[in-house]
Design a protein that fits this description.
The chain is mainly alpha-helical and 399 residues long. 75% of the residues lie in helices and 0% in strands. The two termini are 51 Å apart.
Length: 399
């Protein structure tokens, strides 16, 4: 037999070995009770060795017997490196989107405030202020210049870390953020922790209890209650809580942040609707995960129920919940604007609503940029967590 025929037979046999190897790895993953993501990643890690055997190359990249080295195209080599490091493309794309989104928020806030009517200088100086005093104040603030010139100066100041200043009080927006943002972050993080703990625990418990069509009445009550309370706005929940628990029952303070009890009502107002919505999603994801083959395999091996739920069910239903949870954290930051106003909380939201009412351009623009930055950063962190938790996610490839 010639050398060419021998080479064809060799490649045919090794190709069949590669297919058998991948099929065996897939069956081993199902039989061992692990999720498909883990099994597929193990098979993918072993695939390069088989492909190297098909190409006739040795274990250390040396050309095989009878194979001649082929020159590589530099451009294709760079493209392969980019595909091998998808995190670089992922981070770059997300960073560019973040910058564009913040620029849009700043531009919209800048233009809307200036073209929506009203004069913040007259509001600050009062109705009895003389036209000369108003004109002098507008000139000192640069409000008598063309709008495009004002916009250019504001963008240039942002690159130097200047968020602007209050038109009414002259206080720097950076000082307002430094003073009030810790209160807003503390309220948001506590609310987020409460939401995640209660929502995941409630959703997983209800998914296990109602799996296979069991406890239909419990499922109906759960769906009805979460659907009702999940659609009540946060600020309206805050008003109801104040009336019932602060004014009538006098169990908690009406407003302020002096004691630990002052956190109870604001946190409850920010958490209730999100607990309802996330627990519904967590229940659906739990039901889907319980019916997967690797969970059935784990049960067939007579593992303890607690081990099945914690090791196989919980990790595989979390990625979808993490995405929704990140959106929830972003919505908590923006939703706290009205809740802080209801409870007179000394956070950024109270300053934001006050500035809108008095048409204070500087504060509104600066705080809008802060809210946009926090929301986009939280979303980016959630995308990274999902890409790390779920190997089946196509987020990196579509970045």
């Amino acid at each position: 037999m010639s050398n060419t025929a021998t080479e064809h037979v060799h490649r045919f046999l090794t190709g069949g070995a590669a297919g058998a190897w991948r099929a065996a790895r897939g069956r081993a993953g199902q039989a061992s009770g692990v999720s498909p993501a883990v099994a597929s990643s193990d098979a993918a890690g072993a695939a390069p060795d088989v492909r190297s055997a098909q190409d006739g190359s040795g274990g250390h990249g040396s050309p095989g017997r009878g194979a001649s080295p082929t020159p590589r195209d530099p451009s294709s080599h760079k493209a392969t490196r980019r595909r091998a490091n998808p995190w670089v493309s992922f981070v770059v794309h997300r960073f560019v989107r973040m910058i564009v989104a913040m620029w849009v928020v700043v531009t919209v806030a800048f233009l809307v405030l200036r073209y929506s009517g009203g004069d913040p200088v007259r509001t600050a100086l009062g109705a009895t202020a003389s036209p000369e005093l108003i004109a002098a104040r507008r000139h000192s603030l640069g409000l008598d210049r063309p709008v495009l010139e004002q916009y250019g100066d504001y963008i240039a100041g942002l690159f130097h870390g200047d968020l602007g200043q209050s038109i009414i009080t002259g206080r720097a927006v950076g000082d307002i953020v430094a003073t009030r943002l810790p209160w807003t972050i503390a309220l948001a993080l506590i609310s987020f922790a409460v939401i995640m703990i209660l929502a995941v625990a409630l959703g997983v418990t209800m998914g296990i209890a109602t799996n296979g069509g069991r406890h239909r009445h419990t499922e109906m009550v759960f769906t009805a209650l979460t659907g009702f309370f999940g659609n009540i706005p946060d600020y309206l929940v805050g008003v109801i809580l104040i009336v019932v628990f602060a004014i009538d029952l006098k169990l908690f303070p009406v407003a302020g942040s002096k004691t630990a009890a002052s956190y109870v009502l604001p946190v409850t107002a920010l958490s209730l609707s999100s607990i309802c919505s996330i627990s519904r999603i967590a229940r659906i994801q739990t039901l889907q995960t319980l019916n997967d083959d690797y969970v059935r395999t784990a049960r067939g091996k007579r593992l303890k129920p607690s081990r099945v739920y914690l090791r196989h069910v919980l990790p595989n239903m979390l990625p979808a919940v993490v995405v929704l949870a990140a959106q929830t954290l972003a919505s908590i930051m923006t939703g706290s604007v009205l809740v802080e106003q209801v409870f007179n909380w000394p956070g950024v939201g109270t300053a934001f609503t006050t500035a809108i009412g008095s048409r204070d351009y500087g504060i509104v623009q600066g705080l809008a940029l802060v809210y946009a930055f926090i929301t986009l950063v939280v979303t980016f962190i959630a995308d990274v967590i999902v890409a790390l938790l779920d190997r089946r996610s196509t987020m990196l490839e579509t970045a």
